[in-house]
Amino acid sequence: AKQKDIIPQAHIAHYDLNQLQSTQDAAVNKEQVLILTPMQTFHQEYWNNLLQLTYPRDLIELGFIIPRSKSGDVAIKLLEKEVKKIQTDKKETRFHKITILRQDSESFNELGEKERHAMAVQKERRSKMALARNELLFSTIGPYTSWVLWMDADIVESPSSLIQDLTQHNKPVLAANIYQRFYNDELNKKDQRPYDFNNWAESSTALELANSLGPDEIILEGYAEMATYRPLMAYFYDPKGPVTATMDLDGVGGGCTLVKAEVHRDGAMFPNFPFYHLIETEGFAKMAKRLGYQITGLPNYLVYHIEE
Amino acid sequence: AKQKDIIPQAHIAHYDLNQLQSTQDAAVNKEQVLILTPMQTFHQEYWNNLLQLTYPRDLIELGFIIPRSKSGDVAIKLLEKEVKKIQTDKKETRFHKITILRQDSESFNELGEKERHAMAVQKERRSKMALARNELLFSTIGPYTSWVLWMDADIVESPSSLIQDLTQHNKPVLAANIYQRFYNDELNKKDQRPYDFNNWAESSTALELANSLGPDEIILEGYAEMATYRPLMAYFYDPKGPVTATMDLDGVGGGCTLVKAEVHRDGAMFPNFPFYHLIETEGFAKMAKRLGYQITGLPNYLVYHIEE
Lengths: 308, 308
Ligand SMILES: Nc1nc2c(ncn2[C@@H]2O[C@H](COP(=O)(O)OP(=O)(O)O)[C@@H](O)[C@H]2O)c(=O)[nH]1
Ligand SMILES: Nc1nc2c(ncn2[C@@H]2O[C@H](COP(=O)(O)OP(=O)(O)O)[C@@H](O)[C@H]2O)c(=O)[nH]1
Ligand SMILES: [Mn+2]
Ligand SMILES: [Mn+2]
Hints:
The structure is a homodimer. Chain A is α/β, with parallel strands linked by helices. The first copy, chain A, has 8 helices and 11 strands. The first copy, chain A, has a single domain (8-305), classed as Spore Coat Polysaccharide Biosynthesis Protein SpsA, Chain A, CATH 3.90.550.10. The first copy, chain A, has helices at 44-51, 70-87, 113-117, 119-140, 162-168, 204-212, 261-265, 280-290; strands spanning 12-16, 32-38, 60-66, 97-102, 145-151, 155-157, 173-184, 189-194, 247-248, 256-260, 295-305. In chain A, strands 2, 3, 4, 5, 6, 7, 8, 9, 10 and 11 form a 10-stranded mixed sheet that branches. In chain A, strand 7 and strand 8 (189-194) form a beta hairpin. Chain A is globular, with a radius of gyration of 19 Å. The termini of chain A are far apart. Strand 1 (12-16) of chain A pairs parallel with strand 4 of chain B, so a sheet runs across the interface. The structure holds guanosine-5'-diphosphate (GDP) (2 copies) and manganese (II) ion (2 copies).
């Protein structure tokens, strides 16, 4: 699993991709994990959560892509401050490498949670997100990367063993279930609710719908005006079931999804054009399937999205 | 265009993709070119041709991917010898970086030119080539790469100003015309003939053909049993015309094709599954078009494939 440079002093790097592994014993086998985060807003809670992960830091690379927008200007300053702090602190607590990219492609204007989710703006928004994710992926994945963990910048709470837990399943593509904590005014207590509806299994209704669409039309999950009757992982959470329970999926979100690097290396990316009527992370899942990989979800393994 | 590391000593790399350029004055603007070559056989003529290119070497990175096969074992030894020679020679003549990958995905057994081109084996062969190209691309493209030049290992002759000539057109995807020198027994003299038929423009016949195909069937160019009547760039060579003449294309080969890095970074890769009934480099061209880019060919700009 360890890669070596044959004559590094002369800028020759030699890698045997066949020796590069992604196994269920990732940390023991010293497998390199690349955490990729598109970031419009820097949340201190995201960063704190990242720092409490227990996977060995010298095996973690971070990659960020930040939009050219006002909110991006703010985010990059805050991020750089934290990055500098950790990477200039003692050697043992540094990440292997951190890459910060400023986005080339146009970004979508900041919108509130409601507007952002309005179906009309979603197609354009998600197609731009697809380009941002591709720019980030292509620029940071290396010949030594074993795993890519897609984690959105507004994921603020996860088990500290997140990477060990996910890699242990040894799946090509594996999505955690994304919930949101909130204060339930009716019940007058703290509560949680499903947040991400991009993790789903295919339904015959959605397939029929797809057949009825023009070649460039897309299906977006989570909209009443386009009922797909797809089984959504968000609703399969069983607090009494084992956290290791899995379910087969056909679409995933990018909130907290672990991908074997070979899946991306084989070509799986985030289409910004309709791919089987799907785009971005959902299009990625379909592409991974076309490349012969299985998509899996962990309905009882929760991570939390910030409440806005 | 120069990229800078903010705090390199602490493993933080900062890149503004918006500042990264690919222009018609590539060498003057110090734009980094990544030459990518899948290599089953090492030909000394290929290497010699590479060394006679006049684009500044410190702006060139080389990336190779070599199959796990007997012929690959031989190729890697020969390649490594040459690489070591050049990279340990004086600093001024070294390439910026050279990455040699041993292929993870299965490779196709070596075949002669005739068998290799038989239509029945092409689908499998080209689908494996697609994976090799993706592995190579994803592992080597960096946030500082401006251009990617795809050059097959059996391209043995090109103008020494190849990179300057191609970048000067400032096109997202630009294919040279691939010919082959041979001894014409009938005319009893040295001659040349068209070699690569993967550079083509779409035809209505091919589009109708595509419509008649099942979702997983593919069209392969250059086979009598599947006549597409596509205009093939190979036949548009006009020895009296200007070498800078361009033509619009829809499909390309990977023999000698220059791509702006942003096209790949937006997500354009080599599908190993039918994409609009196309795979590998031809599927790549279609994907680049779907991402909004134009495909261009240079019918009068010749580079030469080895004669086997
Ligand atoms: N680079 C980049 N990141 C963005 C952009 N818009 C949103 N993001 C980030 O992408 C991720 C998903 O976006 P978000 O708006 O949270 O989507 P939602 O949670 O599905 O509503 C988050 O990490 C955002 O910070 C953008 O235009 N460019
Ligand atoms: N990595 C890798 N390279 C290959 C393999 N097969 C062929 N190549 C290389 O891919 C390029 C195109 O292949 P080639 O057989 O020449 O195709 P043709 O010229 O279109 O007949 C050449 O550079 C070959 O050396 C393979 O299985 N793996
Ligand atoms: Mn979010
Ligand atoms: Mn060839």
